[in-house]
Amino acid sequence: MSALLVTLGLVSACSAPAQSGPPLTGSTSPVTNPTPGTAPAPAATDPTAFGAECSEAKACAAGLSCTTYYGIAGPSGPAFHSCEVPCGQDKAQCPDATTCVTIADGPGMVCRPKER
To answer: 41-57 as b/e, with b when 16 or more CB fall inside 10 Å?
Structure first.
């Protein structure tokens, strides 16, 4: 009987409507995410600049933008900021010598230097 109650509780919790708050596409998706295929590939950038921390006081290198995202805690946790080139289904928009990768619990789909 208690197993049935636990199962019913889980089903109702999983099927309950989402709590109100800002719309999210995923707790780890970048807040700024361009439409795939709309931006030309940026110029090549220093490989060490990808993923570097950024802020209002610390700008990103040319070709990178300061992207805000949330980690595993979602919007209830801290916001993180890193220098990225967001990418998506159109992986051609990544600069030369980089590839589009997904960083879970991070900025999502971004360009990173190709491993040698």
So the answer is: bbeebeeebbbbebeee
Cβ neighbourhood burial of 39 (10 Å; 0-12, 13-18, 19+)? middle
Instruction: Please name the residues in contact with 40: beta carbons below 8 A apart, sequence gap of 6 or more.
Output: 93
Measured in whole angstroms, the distance separating CA 54 from the mean position of its chain's CA atoms is 15
Q: How far is Cα 59 from Cα 70, in angstroms, rounded to an integer?
A: 19
Question: Could you report the per-residue pLDDT of 58-87, keeping only the tens digit for each?
Answer: 999 999 999 999 999 999 999 999 999 999
pTM of the model: 0.59
